[in-house]
Design goal:
The protein has 761 residues and is mainly alpha-helical. It has a domain of 109 residues: Tetratricopeptide repeat domain (Serine Threonine Protein Phosphatase 5, Tetratricopeptide repeat), CATH 1.25.40. Helix content is 80%, strand content 0%. The N and C termini lie far apart (126 Å).
Length: 761
């Protein structure tokens, strides 16, 4: 190669080398300038990219790390911002800004010793650094050294009178010391530093509200609106103020103005929706939620809020669809899965809900809400011991969880663990003294443990809490009836009837009291009055006719009794009691054959009627012709597979006299589905559970039955048998003795006496 050409190539290479070095530096500067411009334009993500590109070219530059830290803070990424400022300190140990930022992080993380170390480093470099002095004052305040903190804050304000944070911090100390005039003066100074700034004025508003100077607070908020007339957030704050003052029209106007000012922002719509939701303007709330979702269709937080609103408003299908959409978007999204489980519980799909809740529990074993809903599922599945354990754990994890305390109180009450029920109700009343349900459980628990004065005081509290609710009056009437104070009881029961004359428990207790006092004419008059009231309600008519029939039977007016029982069946063929009553009358009159012929004749005329088969089954069962009874019950169920009276009686027969317990359980559940509130059905289902060894489930059903028919000896007997199998001899003795006290000759009384004799010997 010619020497001249070689020299030219060397010169070109040197030029490229020098030019290349300059290009890296220029690129770095370009990235920094670009990042700063993006930061100024509030495009923080783009700014972050530019600063990271600059660091690729110069990874040890503390200036760029500082810019990146500031940007990451704007992006809400404090963890990486902390790392960036740590890099600044590494490459520039005396960088005061970075040291102050790191001290702030340590204060937030409650690592005060490390924070102090950084602050003292800054103050050694710059003793008058107001940012470091302010952080030091913060630490002193946390350490309760408010006097030294005050001195530091005053020093900051002397050097920098417009230091808003110092003015506000000193004001808080003055408030703590109850030096309110000085506190207010400092807050006013903070506002005067920048009259358009929102936060200082809000601090002043908070102070004025605390001092109950609502007019002055409103004036400050209106001033904030005037200074920031296009700011939707200020309107929301004003609306919140009016809402707390129960000035709903002004609150609504403020929220709607916020929507008008920021029609493409989600927050005003969500705030307005929440307002409408709380004030029961449901259509407006739904409209606002939907508009918020239209702005951000993929915002899962908005979807969650809307779905919960729909669920609360019983728009279950819409809520379910939105939950499915969320889970498609994020299959593991916990809030959506939780809401799905709640929807399943509301639809009584307990097994599916429980599986989902168990998965949620594995992910977070300390979520009390998950355990509460598990308890609800297990109650629905008749897994009562597991339900109690789950709800007790929920209460343990969250002692302030009112709903869990209430559910646990209910569980204990139904198990007749009255002291435990009362204790849980008392916890609720500590949290919310006006909770009606807790007050009811507490008073009834006192009554069941013989604490009459406390029970009476509790029922009077119920009446005071809600004078329009008949439940308190009924319970007071029940207590006075038990004490045989019939006149007082009648007064309370009549007040309950005046509020709702369709309350069967009130009517039944009045009827029982009149019978106990031998006021039979008054009892019949009450029945006739109630029949007139209930003429369009066949289920209630059936019960009233049955009760009046029993009244006639007690008076030995058998024909009138039978007529009443037939009217009961005519009103509601699914009602169990009159069938057995008619069968017992037929046997008592030794007129069994005539009754059988009567029902067989009915079947000849219309073989597709289940009721005659039911009557024949009842007669044969009362006559102990169990095979014939079973055949007729089965025939009734062939005609109508969901005929509850036959399903119930056949279930009881199979449980009592065969080993077909699974079939008995299926039939008992059919009856329970059709007649969920019938105490006879509850007794049958409870007895079937007992026979299958499901003692916890049995106790629950039998106790529910006794709630409605407390004087039924057979139910007490069944409950005693169940307690004995559970190993609770004391409760077994109590129930068996109660059964014999009510009737020494019920079906099973000999067995009850034999058990008691064995236990006591």
């Amino acid at each position: 190669m010619p020497q001249k050409l070689k020299s030219i190539l060397i010169i070109i290479a040197i030029i490229f080398l020098v030019t290349g070095c300059k290009t890296d530096q220029e690129k770095k500067i370009s990235h920094i300038e670009g990042g700063e411009q993006y930061f100024s334009d509030k495009e923080y993500k783009k700014a972050e990219i530019e600063f990271r590109n600059a660091l690729q070219l110069s990874p040890d530059d503390p200036q760029v790390w500082s810019l990146l830290g500031k940007t990451l803070m704007k992006l809400g990424n404090p963890r990486e911002a902390f790392q960036a400022y740590t890099k600044v300190e590494t490459h520039d140990p005396d960088n005061k800004d970075a040291l102050v930022k790191l001290a702030s992080f340590f204060i937030l993380g409650k690592d005060l010793e490390k924070a102090k170390e950084k602050i003292e480093h800054v103050l050694k470099l710059d003793p008058d650094n107001t940012d470091a002095l302010f952080l030091k004052a913060q630490i002193l305040t946390q350490e309760k050294d408010v006097d030294t903190a005050s001195t530091l804050l005053e020093r900051i304000i002397d050097k920098k009178p417009d230091h808003i944070n110092a003015l506000q911090a000193l004001a808080r100390i003055k408030m703590f010391k109850q030096e309110f005039e000085q506190a207010e003066a400092l807050l006013v100074k903070a506002v005067d530093v920048d009259t358009a700034a929102i936060q200082p004025r809000l601090a002043l508003v908070t102070f004025l509200i605390a001092k109950k100077r609502f007019k002055d607070a409103e004036a400050q908020l209106l001033a904030a609106v005037e200074k920031n007339s296009e700011n939707s957030d200020v309107r929301i704050i004003l609306g919140n103020f009016y809402f707390r003052k129960r000035n709903n029209p002004s609150a609504e106007a403020a929220y709607l103005k916020a929507v008008e000012l920021a029609p493409k922002a989600m927050k005003p719509y969500m705030t307005a929706a929440g307002f409408y939701d709380i004030t029961n303007s449901r259509d407006k709330a739904l409209d606002m939620y939907q508009k918020a979702l239209a702005i951000q269709p993929d915002n899962i937080a908005v979807k969650t809020t809307l779905a919960r609103f729909q669920y609360k408003e019983q728009q279950v299908d819409a809520a379910e669809a939105l939950v499915a959409e969320m889970l498609k978007q994020r299959p593991k999204f916990r809030q959506a899965r939780m809401l799905k489980s709640e929807i399943l519980v509301s639809k009584k799909q307990f097994s599916q809900a429980l599986m989902l809740l168990q998965d949620l529990e594995k992910e977070d074993p300390k979520d009390a809400r998950v355990l509460y809903f598990q308890g609800l599922c297990q109650i629905g599945l008749q897994e009562n011991d597991m339900a109690r354990a789950a709800v007790a754990r929920a209460v343990e994890l969250n002692p302030g969880y009112l709903k869990a305390h209430l559910l646990l109180a209910d569980i204990y009450f139904h198990e007749r663990s009255f002291d435990l029920a009362q204790a849980q109700a008392a916890e609720v009343l500590k949290l919310n003294p006006s909770n009606y349900r807790a007050a009811m459980i507490s008073a009834k628990s006192h009554m069941n443990t013989g604490k009459i004065q406390k029970a009476e005081a509790g029922f009077k509290t119920l009446i005071a809490l809600d004078p329009e609710n008949p439940a308190g009056y009924y319970q007071m009437g029940f207590l006075k009836s038990a004490l045989k104070q019939y006149d007082v009881a009648e007064s309370y029961l009549n007040q309950a009837m005046d509020m709702n004359n369709m309350l069967l428990d009130v009517f039944t207790l009045l009827l029982k009291n009149y019978t106990n006092q031998n006021k039979l004419d008054t009892a019949h008059a009450l029945c006739q009055k109630q029949l007139e009231r209930a003429k369009d309600k066949p289920q209630i008519l059936a019960i009233i006719n049955y009760l009046e029939g029993s009244l006639y039977l007690a008076q030995k007016e058998t024909n009138k009794a039978k007529d009443a029982y037939y009217r009961a069946i005519e009103a509601n063929p699914d009602y169990l009691e009159p069938y057995g009553a008619i069968a017992r009358i037929a046997l008592a009159e030794q007129d069994r054959e005539k009754a059988v012929i009567q029902y067989l004749t009915l079947l000849e005329k219309n073989p597709n009627l289940p009721a005659p088969h039911m009557m024949l089954g009842s007669i044969y069962e009362t006559d102990k012709s169990f095979d014939k009874a079973e055949a007729h019950y089965r025939k009734a169920l062939e005609i109508n597979p969901e005929y509850a009276p036959a399903a119930n009686n056949l279930a009881y027969h199979l449980a009592e006299r065969t080993d077909k317990f699974d079939q008995a359980l299926a039939l008992a559940r059919i009856a329970k589905k059709k007649l969920p509130n019938d105490p006879g059905v509850m007794d049958t289902l409870g007895y079937v559970y007992y026979k299958k060894g499901l003692y916890g489930n049995a106790v629950s059903e039998l106790l529910d039955s006794l709630e409605k028919i407390p004087d039924a000896p057979v139910v007490h007997y069944h409950l005693g048998l169940t307690y004995l199998k559970k190993g609770d001899k004391a409760l077994a003795v109590t129930q068996l003795e109660k059964a014999l006290e009510l009737n020494k000759d019920f079906d099973g009384s000999d067995h009850a006496m034999a058990i008691l004799k064995k236990i006591k010997n």
